[in-house]
Design a protein that fits this description.
Rossmann fold; 8-stranded mixed β-sheet; homodimer; 14 strands; 13 helices; two-stranded antiparallel sheet; 401 residues
Chain lengths: 401, 401
């Protein structure tokens, strides 16, 4: 680990556990402990675009205890490259806990002594080949053919992610959510929940997200799809019997890695590289160290990922407007939950103006909404790594009516 | 043209001439008039990395008159996708003048009644197939084989661009520059001039640039190279007898287009597109309007472009540190020119911190340096389209010792 990064981890009060290029909290006394991953299935699922998926399977996990009234439930919705694993460990040997372990646990901001916290995998999750992820998407077997769906899988939206979660909650007899909380793509689900099922949702916390994508965000996300579409192995999505489009997938996930970070942190993490390197000066085929490192990180991210799933995830995000109405204002007019927006000041991907627009629209509509920015060097990733900074605010927001 | 964009063009006082998605000034009374493009050749050119290029040809043009002492010369250095055409028109029929026509001309900030303004094409210019560009690079004929160089062309740096310009000025008997001024990649050349030939350069204006690239910028620029490297037609740079890697080139130039703009302007230009479009909801193969438009714009940009040239341009930028010394401070210690940095506040590509770092380093070294930010909605492109905003400052900077 490079020294300045180690210092940074200590500075922000985290144990210096490094995974890829990430410092995360080590296990603490307030952990939710060992977590059990479960599977939920639903049949004849109707998608927002009017298609039907015969069988949907998704993974989920929970922390804390469901009370007798079943009214202490908080739903956590995950980000683009994430999954249900928001807190705790699956086994004692896990190197790292779930991604928001710093705010989910007994006595923490999302207090598992009070709340029953549920988190589930989305449809078309990026990592269908991860043994700890259960998802349904183009890599899943199409029951009508016995082969993977490929592009026969219908386009799905954030609303479909929400509807699968709704079906899961229905199956558990839960008819009320104390809060829905998510980061990035998770924040889109959280806000859409409040428009889709306004009587169901009491509070929404949108971290590093917004109310709707705009042309710039659609075009920016398209950059992640393009290398996959250009890979000859992609073969119009039909590659499951042959060679997968791993080069395109790697390029896509490399861009996700880079674009989710601000130069402030990126330059610390990759400080060993710079314009003075000798190999790239003498050989146009030679890479800068930072490029090799980023490629290696992207390569590691391809292990469990599927290229078509990335395309479908990109599309789900590109199609997002909370409420799925004629415009954002109309969509948000249905919200009865109170909302808290926590964008990151240095976010270059889902920039703070997206959250501010949603917040201001809700205020204009007479709703109760709060807005505060996370300050940090990571950029977009501040919403994952530095969420702790807003722990007290989150705790207060959850504790008051 | 969409209405809000028209309003914007009027707002900033420009005639609403649209080229691609760009409003530029129409011809005015203070034009430099018709411009004549010339060619300069030099032989046995020694590159910074120790190679030799037997013949270098580059295009150049000039505005104003060289005085008897040859001490009224201003050199303009061009940006990544640009060429020597900074002002005026080649023919009466040209739809648009050169890119900085708003500040170069009789009575303008860079006053051609006073100064002899020279502008030249760089090595490995993006558009070797543009009849109005003369450049030498991998698409040029290697005299020792009679075939295009391809990857046998040596890696070149910003310093090599400077040295070709130096040879051009030497050939004209010019031994002093009143100023070197450039935007983006042009700003890198401008600042490097002052480190390479400190006795030659009196003033530097660095617009939307910086003193050195950092790992984040190296990685960001690499994104433009990757689609070319991944295109099977690229064939390790050897495609001149066959099919060019146009798909990769288009993807690269699409990213250049997108990443040079800030959402503020991008969302106005592509306001017709949005998350509510029907085709992408129903077909994963269908594109959003903004994606089709961006692809079309990128396609148009491939007309005269060469994929290897883009790779070499990316590399030249990735290798940049003014002075090419052990660090930026050492490089800048050689500067005797006074410097003016004009980054754009909303630049997401070469962000203002790069210029600020160079400015502060020069100040620490006891040099005379000024720093002001261009305010606008374009992002990086503010340095091209809204340079007019700093016309008075530029005029003052050029007029004082």
């Amino acid at each position: 680990m490079n020294q300045s990064f180690k210092v940074f981890c200590q500075m922000i009060g985290l144990a210096t556990v490094l995974s890829g290029a990430v410092c995360l909290a080590a296990a603490d006394d307030n952990s939710v402990g060992l977590v059990n991953k479960q599977t939920f299935s639903t049949h004849d699922f109707q998608t927002f675009n009017g298609s039907e998926i015969p069988v949907v399977n998704i993974g989920w996990e929970a922390y804390g205890e469901l009370n007798a009234n079943k009214d202490n439930v908080i739903l956590i919705t995950h980000f683009f490259s994430g999954n249900s694993h928001a807190a705790g460990r699956y086994t004692e040997d896990d190197a790292l806990p779930g991604y928001w372990d710093s705010i989910i646990g007994p006595g923490k901001a999302i207090d598992t002594n009070r709340y029953y916290v549920i988190s589930s995998d989305t449809l078309v999750n990026q990592e269908p080949h991860n043994p700890l992820v259960t998802t349904t998407g183009p890599a899943s077997i199409n029951p009508s053919t016995g082969e993977p769906y490929g592009l026969d899988f219908p386009v799905v939206t954030i609303r479909d992610f929400v509807n699968v979660q709704k079906a899961l909650l229905d199956s558990l007899g839960i008819s009320r959510l104390h809060a829905v909380i998510g980061a990035s793509m998770g924040s889109l689900q959280a806000l859409d929940w409040a428009t889709a099922y306004p009587d169901f949702v009491e509070r929404v916390i949108s971290v590093i997200g917004g109310g709707a994508v705009d042309p710039w965000t659609i075009a920016t996300l398209q950059q992640w799809a393009n290398p996959i579409l250009a890979d000859p192995n992609w073969n119009n999505g039909d590659y499951y019997g042959g060679e997968a489009p791993l080069a395109g997938l790697r390029q896509a996930l490399g861009m996700v890695t880079l674009q989710a970070m601000h130069p402030l942190m990126f330059n610390q993490l990759y400080a060993a590289s710079g314009p003075g390197e000798s190999a790239p000066l003498h050989d146009i085929r030679a890479n800068f160290t930072v490029v090799d490192q980023l490629n290696a990180a992207a390569d590691a991210r391809t292990t469990f990922a599927d290229a078509n799933h990335v395309l479908y995830l990109v599309r789900a995000n590109q199609l997002f407007m909370a409420g799925f109405s004629e415009n954002l204002r109309a969509g948000l007019s249905r919200v009865s939950a109170k909302t808290l927006f926590l964008p990151a000041s240095n976010d270059l991907l889902l920039q703070p103006y997206l959250a501010r627009t949603a917040h201001e629209t809700l205020m204009e509509l007479g709703k109760t909404s709060y807005y505060e920015e996370i300050d940090g060097p990571w950029g977009h990733l501040d919403g994952v790594y530095l969420i702790d900074q807003k722990a007290e605010l989150i705790e207060q927001f959850l504790s008051t009516d």
